[in-house]
Specification:
Length: 106
């Protein structure tokens, strides 16, 4: 989520330089409920020590109203199309949701 937040900030700065207004807050979809809970919870635990710096950045952007983490089910996570091996049905479903077309059937 921290890496995606950095990318969001880069895109927002680029849009600002191009004088294009952006709609805030930006929805940051995540399929991990525990990651969302850690992002909102200001209390650090032993298991969150190694990414403390990234977490401060993410929490700052959440509190500023720039990003809003939202839960998305694992079946609907579009990033899985690019990062995981999927079965044919799930691959076709995610491709359809992204608006992708099969070049051989068009």
């Amino acid at each position: 989520m921290c890496s995606a937040c950095c990318e969001i900030m880069w895109i927002l700065n680029l849009l600002k330089e191009l004088c294009i207004e952006s709609v805030l807050p930006v929805k940051l979809f995540c399929d991990s409920q525990s990651a969302i809970s850690i992002a909102f919870n200001p209390v650090f635990h032993e298991r969150t020590k190694h990414f403390e710096l990234d977490l401060h950045f993410l929490r700052e952007k959440i509190s500023a109203g720039i990003v809003v983490p939202e839960k998305v089910s694992s079946d609907d996570q579009l990033a899985d199309l690019f990062t995981k091996g999927l079965n044919g049905l799930q691959h076709d479903t995610l491709c359809h949701k992204m608006g992708m077309l099969d070049a051989f059937t068009v």
